[in-house]
Design goal:
It is built from 10 helices and 9 strands. The protein is α/β, with parallel strands linked by helices. It has one domain (7-292): Alpha-Beta Barrel (TIM Barrel). Strands 1, 2, 3, 4, 5, 6, 7, 8 and 9 form a 9-stranded mixed β-sheet that branches. Helix 1 (13-23) packs antiparallel against helix 5 (131-143). It is globular, with a radius of gyration of 18 Å.
Length: 301
């Protein structure tokens, strides 16, 4: 790390952790607002009670170049999700819930191990439902020398109140911006208010950390990095998503416009999703992004 101190070094994480635990008694961490007592093992939409479930962790070299850097992004994959995307490529983790229950000390050891491996960051994959468990572990890891930026790698269905609770802890927010049509979001991800929730979340994330900043090696230090997956038949509503980002977030936004969609999980049950995207479908999104003045995070094919 080059002349950089993670945001959470200025936070009293022990106090924050105690406050966070109270939130599990009537869980409203995400927009589902299940109001279950997770401290007692009650289960809501995310199927996660008191303890986080970790599927795997390790250096990852398939992320954005600014996260991968030279030694990889230190990813921790959490099982389950607060979305039910019918085409999820990681459905064995997000929907089936493959993984092991992990307490705070074990999770802290994972973070410290990733730092020892030389990873450039701690990349929390699908953290919206395990915010409390993460803060518990971070408090321990910080005391034991963790000094890496935290990446909040989310599906973008996040409550502003929870994001505000995380202010000063997260260095890099990396949300998806999946849809601009709520009816389609309901059909394919069971989230009938996705676009409104996502817009509020992205605005709050940007307020906290601003546009993506890197060090002199091009490695991400702080800021907002947005992902948008192009879906077949314009299902994602890409144009409206990009208009929102350009006009209401920032034209300096880093937007990874992704072309890797392939039918997975239950996509074969939806004929309109049962094929990869075409080169033309991807190109029209790239062209529109450039027309809007967006220019970071994607390269014309």
């Amino acid at each position: 790390m080059v002349n950089f101190t993670p945001a959470y070094h200025a936070i009293d994480l022990k106090t924050k952790s105690a406050q966070a635990l109270e939130l599990l008694k009537n869980c409203q961490l995400c927009p589902r607002e299940c109001k279950v007592n997770r401290l007692k093992g009650e289960i809501g939409y995310c199927k996660t009670g008191r303890w986080a479930i970790v599927s795997s962790y390790g250096p990852h070299f398939g992320e954005e170049p600014e996260l991968v850097g030279f030694n990889g992004s230190g990813t921790i994959f959490f099982a389950h999700c607060n979305l039910s995307c019918q085409y999820c490529q990681n459905y064995d983790i997000s929907q089936i819930g493959y993984g092991d229950f992990t307490n705070a000390r074990e999770l802290a050891k994972m973070m410290l191990s990733l730092q020892k491996m030389g990873c450039h960051n701690i990349n929390l994959v699908s953290p919206s439902h395990i915010v409390v468990q993460f803060i518990e572990a971070l408090a321990i890891a910080k005391e034991e020398g963790l000094n890496l930026p935290i990446v909040y790698n989310t599906g973008g269905y996040d409550s502003v109140s929870t994001l505000k609770f995380l202010e000063g802890i997260i260095d890099i927010y990396m949300p998806d911006a999946k849809y601009s049509d709520n009816e389609l979001a309901k059909k394919y991800s069971f989230a009938n208010d996705y676009f409104e929730v996502n817009k509020r979340a992205l605005k709050e994330m940007h307020r906290q950390v601003g546009d993506l900043k890197t060090d002199n090696r091009g490695v991400a230090l702080r800021g907002l990095l947005i992902r948008h997956l192009v879906l077949p038949n314009r299902i994602a509503g890409s144009f409206k998503v990009l208009e929102f980002i350009a006009n209401e977030i920032s034209k300096e936004s880093y937007v990874n416009i992704m072309a890797q969609y392939r039918p997975c999980y239950r996509a074969d049950k939806y004929p309109e999703l049962a094929r990869p995207i075409t080169r033309q479908e991807y190109q029209e999104v790239i062209d529109y992004a450039q027309k809007l003045g967006l220019h970071r995070g994607f390269c014309p094919p």
